[in-house]
Amino acid sequence: MNRRDEMNKIIQDFSTSVNLLQVTADEITKSNILDHIRCKIYDLYLINNLGAELKMQSNAVRTLPFQNNRIFTKEELSRYNGKNGMPAYVAVNGTVYDVTNNAAWGAATHFGLTAGNDLSTQFASCHAGHPILQNLPIVGTMVE
């Protein structure tokens, strides 16, 4: 599928989602639909700005080396929220990434998500299949 087809598919998905929002009374369902729309907005961003780069990277999988092999607890990770001079870290599937200098994480937030948290579930629902994490520095691992 080319970029134009991908964008058209996402636009059709927007239309369907907006129609669902109009007829849905349940607040939880509305919230889920809005989360889905946020994910699709980010998909459009990726297609528009990173499309060629992501396709090249998907052919050659690479992982950035550990900056250090630090172990993070949930409480410790929460301190790395990008505030008060602290870097912005997020955990996905047990790996902690530094998003401090990532443009998509300006002000240590990304479409309502905040740094300093385990975002495994949110990542899976929005970015599964996208090699986004491959460009982020790994700073450690997350433990329960």
TrEMBL record:
Coiled coil: none annotated. Residues 72-143 form the Cytochrome b5 heme-binding domain. InterPro entries: Cyt_B5-like_heme/steroid-bd (IPR001199), Cyt_B5-like_heme/steroid_sf (IPR036400), MAPR/NEUFC/NENF-like (IPR050577). It comes from the Bacteria. SUPFAM superfamilies: Cytochrome b5-like heme/steroid binding domain (SSF55856). Belongs to the cytochrome b5 family. MAPR subfamily. PANTHER family: CALCUTTA CUP-RELATED, MEMBRANE-ASSOCIATED PROGESTERONE RECEPTOR COMPONENT-RELATED. This is Cytochrome b5-like heme/steroid binding domain protein. The lineage of its organism: Bacteria, Bacillati, Bacillota, Clostridia, Eubacteriales.
